[in-house]
Write a structure and sequence with these properties.
The protein is an alpha+beta fold. Helix content is about 50%, strand content about 10%.
């Protein structure tokens, strides 16, 4: 029997246990369908019957009765963030039964927008969800595994090194001693230190972009929040309008930044608009460069080519940002000497 068929049988058995535990009537026949995976190692299956459908997630079994995903789901739900409903779980079996959100990601939904005004409206609504997350009092984050994860210098710098390893040395096949890589590393080091020194910290989703928002019955539902950590508000803020999957109208990006600033400037103590713009740009450079590393890592370690097509757009986004910042002249010259030489 093929592994995928074995997994489907396992999911059906676990779903029947959920029904028995919750006194749900099983409407036969059941249909278990493997869903296309994202960049994670988790596996998802849709369980359908004649009247309803659910999504079962399979992950590595753990002995704990709780995990980061379940904890964050509760915390976000308590703070009015729209997240998937959880119907049952057995972490010792690596099983979580969730609400079926359908197949429409935010980026797929954006394909049908009719105007830049519609685009702005939907992005504003998606930004509202991250604003709710950033308003959460850090004292309410009680799970140590979440509280002890930070976007500090070490974490931000490690993301830069991932891109150097898998993109520059991996895909572009640069030799380890290429002096241009050392300059790029040194310049990004300065950016990471500046971001680490930024005094305002919030709870960060960590990967808030157009593929991690689902659209169900006109609702925007936030997913993939299990890796949440503490950091500056800019990491999440740039992740949405500056993601590498979709190019927002430039004027809409400006409006979204102003919208976020107008709502959270007092709550977060952000009083200087010029500083806000500056750190937004720094975080964009770090975040987009990190995304390139993720795309390269997925290709090299999993032979998954789906994300390679976004690297060109990401690099041009970085170049445009660097052209506006003369203090990063050496970063731009060396990074794009590397890129355009290959």
């Amino acid at each position: 029997m093929r592994p995928e068929q074995t997994e489907k049988i396992y999911v059906e058995e676990m779903f029947r246990r959920s029904c028995e535990k919750n006194n749900w009537t099983i409407d036969e026949p059941l249909n278990v369908i493997r869903l296309t995976g994202d960049a994670s190692t988790r596996k998802y299956f849709r369980v359908e019957n004649q009247k309803s459908s659910f999504v079962a997630c399979l992950d590595n079994p753990v002995s704990s009765p709780d995990n980061d995903f379940l904890y964050m789901q509760r915390l976000l739900k308590e703070n009015q963030v729209r997240v998937p409903l959880i119907y049952d779980n057995d972490l010792s079996m690596g099983y979580i039964l969730e609400e079926d959100l359908g197949d429409v990601t935010f980026i797929k939904f954006l394909a049908d927008v009719n105007s830049v005004n519609d685009e702005l409206n939907y992005y504003t609504r998606s930004l509202d969800e991250i604003i709710k997350i950033h308003k959460i009092d850090l004292k309410k984050v009680t799970r140590s595994q979440v509280r002890e994860r930070y976007f500090d210098f070490e974490k931000l710098d490690s993301e830069i090194h991932m891109t150097l390893q898998y993109f520059c040395h991996g895909i572009l096949e640069l030799p380890a001693d290429d002096p241009r890589v050392s300059v790029v590393e040194s310049e990004f080091n300065k950016i990471c230190r500046a971001l680490d020194d930024y005094p305002i910290k919030v709870l960060c989703h960590r990967d808030y972009h157009s593929r991690n928002i689902m659209v169900k019955n006109s609702e925007l539902v936030v997913i993939d929040f299990q890796d949440a950590r503490i950091g500056t508000p800019f990491y999440d803020l740039v992740s949405l309008p500056e993601d590498c999957y979709y190019q927002i109208d430039d004027a809409n990006i400006v409006t979204l930044k102003k919208y976020y600033y107008s709502i959270l400037r007092e709550h977060l103590g952000i009083t200087n608009a010029a500083d806000f713009d500056y750190f937004y740009e720094l975080s964009k450079l770090q975040r987009v460069f990190k995304a390139i590393g993720s795309f390269a890592y997925i290709y090299i370690t999993r032979n998954d080519k789906r994300y390679l097509k976004y690297i060109g757009f990401a690099m041009e986004k970085i170049k445009a940002a660097l052209l506006r910042r003369p203090e990063f002249l050496q970063l731009r010259k060396n990074l794009f000497s590397i890129y355009y030489d290959n």
